UniProtKB/TrEMBL annotation:
It comes from the Eukaryota. Residues 9-26 form the Cytosolic fatty-acid binding proteins domain. Coiled coil: none annotated. The gene is Fabp6. GO terms for cellular component: cytoplasm. This is FABP6 protein. PROSITE patterns: FABP. Transmembrane segments: none annotated. It is found in: Cytoplasm. Belongs to the calycin superfamily. Fatty-acid binding protein (FABP) family. It comes from Erythrocercus mccallii. InterPro entries: Calycin, Fatty_acid-bd, ILBP. The keyword Transport applies. GO terms for molecular function: lipid binding. Keywords: Cytoplasm, Lipid-binding, Transport.
């Protein structure tokens, strides 16, 4: 069936749009801003039905993992390392989560992981290519 296991895989950062405007808008500290710029983040997703493990591997060995079930509240961590609770929803094959100061969507499009974060009208788009 469509949408089953669609997200599972390993994806490497390929490019982004509007990074600076977005991180400024969400108030990311400047050291984190530099760390994230053109950062070859590898995103590893394991999907088991509605259960997800979403891990980001940063150069230098730091990782962030969010575990969540679609439709249930979960403990999450932001780009800047802030902890919060969110309920991830599935809308038209996209994962949608409301972070404290931005809305995040993720979808698989043309074999790539496309993530879009929106904060007060600023749209940040990140594309990652599948490597495994």
């Amino acid at each position: 069936p469509k949408g089953t296991m669609a997200f599972t895989g390993k994806y490497e950062f390929e490019g982004d749009e509007n990074y600076d405007a977005f991180v400024q808008k969400i108030g990311l500290p400047s050291d984190k801003v530099e760390m994230g710029r053109n950062c070859k983040i590898v995103t590893e997703v394991v999907q088991n039905g509605n259960d997800f493990t979403w891990t980001q591997h940063f150069p230098g060995g730091r990782t962030t993992t969010n575990n969540f079930t679609v439709g249930k509240e979960a403990d999450m961590e932001t780009m800047g390392g802030r902890k919060f609770q969110a309920t991830v929803k599935m809308e038209d094959g996209k994962l949608v989560a409301d972070f404290p100061n931005y809305r995040h969507t993720a979808e698989i499009s043309g074999g790539k992981l496309v993530e879009i974060s929106t904060s007060s009208g600023v749209v940040y788009k990140r594309t990652s290519k599948k490597i495994a």
